[in-house]
Amino acid sequence: KTYDDVIARFEGSSDPALRKQVVTAVVNSVRYFVTLTRYDEARARAREGLSLARNLRLDDLVAWTLQHLAAVAALRVQDKGERRSQDLARAARIAGFIDARLAATGTQRQYTDQQEYDRVLAVLHDTISADEVVNLMAAGAAMTQCQAIEEALAI
């Protein structure tokens, strides 16, 4: 089945379990696009996944989508050879938000999510002073989910 078929099935279903599975698949596809360095596709798919997850109030999937958008912000800068400070600052704040969210829920990153996170942190530490990374992540940890989403949508 194509991606459009999956989305059509989502839109035509009232089964909460099926709807969550579809949103999970959408969010997981973002991680694959990031891994393949297809950042524009990752960003577009993440924005769609974020909307779906928010509408269903799937906060865990909102958080993972935010992490993927932070990865897009940090890694696409590296990929293009640019160092846009706004995107890097957004990535750091979102990473801080996700860290706080995971700590509050007792959730740990799975292997592939941890790899993505480690890549983001490596770029941040290579391009921003250690003190600034700490400060930006602390600011992110203090954000609400709505603020983190707003930050991510600016990517």
H and E string: HHHHHHHH
Q: How is the main sheet built?
A: none
Unreliable stretches, pLDDT < 50, 5 or more residues? none
Number of strands: 0
What gyration radius follows from the Cα positions, in whole Å? 15 Å
Helix percent band: over 70%
Assess the beta-strand content as a share of residues.
Answer: under 5%
Quaternary state reads: single chain
**SSE class:** mainly alpha
Overall average pLDDT:
91
Give the overall form: globular
Number of DSSP helices? Answer: 8
How far is it from the N-terminal to the C-terminal residue, by CA? Answer: 30 Å
Quick description:
This protein has 155 residues and is mainly alpha-helical.
Layout: helices, strands, pairs:
Layout: H1 3-11, H2 16-35, H3 39-55, H4 59-80, H5 85-105, H6 111-127, H7 130-141, H8 145-153
Helix pairs in contact: 1-2, 2-3, 2-4, 3-4, 4-5, 4-6, 4-8, 5-6, 5-7, 5-8
